[in-house]
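notes to self, project folder thing:

trying the whole complex as one job this time. last attempt i did each chain seperately and stitching them together was a nightmare. two parts in total, labels are on each line so i dont mix them up again. if this works i'll redo the older ones the same way
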Amino acid sequence: MEEIENFRSLSEYEYGALKELENIGIGNSATSLYKLTNSLVCTKVLGAKFELIENIPRVAGASGSPVLGSFMYIENDLKGCILILFPEKSVRSLSLIFSGEENGKISADTMKKSLIEEISHILAGTYVTALSDFLDLNILISTPYMVYDMFVSILNSVLTEMSCKMDFALLLDAEFLIKEERVYGNILTLFDPASLDYLLRRISEMSHQKPY
Amino acid sequence: MTDSGIVVVGIGACAVARSPVKLKTFGLGSCVGIVLYDRRERIGGLVHTMLPTIDNARIKDNSLKYTDSGIEYLVNEIVKKGSSIKRLEAKLVGGAKMFENRNMNIGERNIKSARNTLRRLEIPIVAEDTGKNYGRTVTLDTSTGDLLIRTILRGDKII
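result (full assembly):
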């Protein structure tokens, strides 16, 4: 059981700090979504959890409902991935905002998929850039991979891929909502244990820095 | 558990039940669901595994996370409940490649591992719905041995 050292329980302070990081990420994503749609975007941080990979679908409350999900790798100083999910209704609303059309099936509509892929990439890009500015790290994201399927299938597949390399992962879970346009989305960020250590170290360095 | 008659099996978990209880697992992507069923005793088992083999595992605590060890564990459990390995028949579901442009074939390797393990244990595979690029939710009805597969875009089917 030499690997059990990989597991750690997070202190209240560490949870708070991680949630705050997430708040910074999603806050910036919301700003770019606001600029894109010109409507008020509400955000909510649902939580930060460090868990065994097989427990994550339960923690994230993954359901069988269909979503359009884009998945991107986070690379360089931090390693992990970011998953942006839009339910079918939100895809229609977004497509109405940007292209003025909303009919047709999502599965067959490459235009709609491409649109959501682009929005997701912008949101994830802003999220990651906000973190890298704040923490003074070099973080990049890959091009998005997109799929329309059950939320839980998408999450399981991503987790399976991650579980080849690690047994635990840090999950940051947040959502955003545009009330008047009825757009709802979910951003899940997963980091490997090494990135969690890196993040916490960086946070503690920052909190001990003298104010200017 | 959502309903007294349905047991929900999570990822890296398994369950064994007697008729008329149903066993259900959500969202098999590249993961694989292996169903074992004993027609005479009407006992069924379902395991939802993630990775092909326990040999490469760093932590070997949860044998249900791996296809090869997961099947062996499930066989033991179902035999303990009063079945015999000679009467078991297997059905395989899952092992999809969700992100088509990604070059990972865990799904395929999972299916291969499941087939090899079942062959080694001499359990016949009576039906399967594997591969392709979509997620599946499966429900095993232990009173008949029927396996209901639900998908988002490709409808439902029973194998």
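what i see at first glance: The first strand of chain B starts at residue 6 and ends at 8.
need to look closer tmrw
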